[in-house]
């Protein structure tokens, strides 16, 4: 139990000693570790050598750089990325000591792991085999709680919530993404709180990360006197005693002081004399600077023109000249991703038919193997393709900047001779449609796998819409653009039609409709208006396809009366029985509650009115939390009149809610007593 304020005052020297001892003990051992077991490296291999170099560099670099260092060592595919970060209220020597300990502990606490995060009292150390810099990672959380319950729980929760929410916003706007403060609990007791993000984040990302951490306080430490919650990118803590250095914390939150004015000797002149001197100096500077600036401008213009002529490549110029200047800048920024054409020809056996994996609107895709044994997938722009430079530029510029486990990884591109090629990681299970819509194979997908695929696609879309540094609308989400890794985890691919949005833009309009019918939201197909809600619609169609194991088209599936999938699902849902939707799903491990919830979420996503569709953040929460009640969906867009109402029900929107909906937002009246496939 924390000592009373009176006891603290009487025993302040001893209490300070105990705090210092506790801090030293905390620095000696991490309070939490994150060691994903799915990324092992070979002992004594190239990656370990790169990781050792990285860990030897980060502690010293962070201690002399205000507590933050990030670096990359090695080359693909054995690159090691690392970040060392110290709490803003600790000094350089404490920072170095903590990080030295963490570097030694990394191989002990997470042996053989390419990814790990170690949390200490004063510092954090993180490393990975993929870049994570500048990305708010909230996919994993950890917590630690005081064992003592608060004596005034309701008052404590109210004051704590106000304090931590305030600290989150203050930290996001502070120079070091750090804030610490107190709030009075009683006249004699304070709550001490602290919030901090790793300083590679943007302010908005920091605020979002801290908001997530604060929301988990009731789940981890409800009613406890103290606790902490951390993600890989941010952390919060609160106690009834001062656990941070208040003076150093105040300095860390203060804006940097402006530099003092330059002093060049003593100035004994009077005000009028100084004003005259200033005017004369300004005139001289003006007369001198204008001619010099003009000469420099001419010289730079001539030098740029000559350099451009010297380095001009005719064929590549034809490709790039149609793009805007910022497009060229983005493409040049991706030069590290360029592959040589001869390398890709050798890897694919000169694009042989035996290595062809499939073909889409962009062109054929080939499997290849590089000299180091790495398998790749090469997408080749066909000469008859209606897609071209803009789509290829989108893939390179957008996907190269994105890092998420549910997005396909772009390795590079090639623009040589007449070829336009994109190089991706190779995924052995190919695309989702190859299994889902194959009558002979779709039974291979268990319900557990389908549910993980639905969740994974949702997390990938959430990252694109809200959690990445870019706001991206995919515009062509469909089963053939979902690739599956060896563990059947989904990865969103094909960003040729993606649109990049600024932070303050939410809706776009285009006169050129591109995408796949059956997945297009009505506002996009009819009016060219697209937004994140357009992707939500496509996601809803995809969810229903995954559950039913059939495409969203008009076809003669048994029991569908030639209906499209959305009409069939709505008809079953309206009648209160969904067992007829499960012909294509294996009964192994079937979870009726999860299945019903996924159908409900899918119907919410395909509502005709875009404003009624949930955002992807809400969708992810709906899929993962059974405690949240769901609203009643309105009829999907494109429902065929007369078919959804075959049972004799009214087809007006007010009457098309599922049976029993009046008893609560989450409909549980759909029959789940007969879930065996027929």
Identify the notable features of this structure and list them briefly.
678 residues; alpha+beta; Killer Toxin P4, Chain A; 4 domains; 21 strands; 16% strand
Please tell me the CATH architecture of the largest domain by its name: Orthogonal Bundle
Major pleated sheet: 5 strands, antiparallel
Q: Provide a count of the helices.
A: 20
Number of domains: 4
Poorly predicted residue ranges: 1-27, 262-275, 310-336, 641-678
Q: Could you walk me through the main structural features you see in this protein, from its secondary elements to its overall organization?
A:
It contains 20 helices and 21 strands. With 678 residues, it is of the alpha+beta class. It folds into four domains: 25-128, Gnk2 domain, C-X8-C-X2-C motif (Killer Toxin P4, Chain A); 141-253, Gnk2 domain, C-X8-C-X2-C motif (Killer Toxin P4, Chain A, 2-Layer Sandwich); 325-425, Phosphorylase Kinase, domain 1 (2-Layer Sandwich); 432-663, Transferase(Phosphotransferase), domain 1. A hairpin with a 5-residue loop joins strand 17 (482-484) and strand 18 (490-492). The radius of gyration is 30 Å and the shape is globular. The N and C termini lie far apart (62 Å). Residues 1-27, 262-275, 310-336 and 641-678 have low confidence and may be disordered.
Entry summary:
The chain is of the alpha+beta class.
Task: Detail the topology: elements first, then pairings.
Elements: H1 5-10, H2 12-28, E1 32-34, H3 46-63, E2 68-73, E3 80-86, H4 92-109, E4 116-119, E5 123-128, E6 141-145, H5 153-173, E7 178-186, E8 189-197, H6 203-215, H7 217-221, E9 227-231, E10 234-239, H8 246-253, H9 271-310, H10 314-320, H11 325-333, H12 341-347, E11 356-359, E12 364-369, E13 375-380, H13 389-399, E14 410-416, E15 419-425, H14 432-436, H15 447-467, E16 471-473, E17 482-484, E18 490-492, E19 499-501, E20 507-509, H16 522-527, E21 529-531, H17 532-548, H18 565-575, H19 592-605, H20 616-624
Antiparallel strand pairs: 1-4, 2-3, 3-5, 4-5, 6-9, 7-8, 8-10, 9-10, 11-12, 12-13, 13-15, 14-15, 16-19, 17-18, 20-21
Helix pairs in contact: 3-4, 5-6, 15-17, 15-20, 17-19
